Amino acid sequence: MPTLVLVVWxxxxxxxxxxxxxxxxxxxxxxxxxxxRTILVDTMGLLLDVVAHSAHRSDHQGLTLLGTWFAxxxxxxxxxxxxxxxxxxxxxxxVNETFG
Length: 100
Fold this sequence. Notes:
DNA binding
């Protein structure tokens, strides 16, 4: 099976108000009120998946929402690049528990 290398990148997006039925919140770390999107791209920058959620969720929580999508690909992953917010023991433990 070919090797698949994924890059995880997160970005916060501020909106004045959420649309009907959309969850919004406050990200105290970035002082953003609105929504946040977690983006999964490959090493060429091609979009693999994106999830939008309330800004009060942590980057780690946003990635767990994507986790169900890339679970079938886990067997062929060699590396996931993330920023420092994913370097915590909680994230590492979640990866090990979820994907073995």
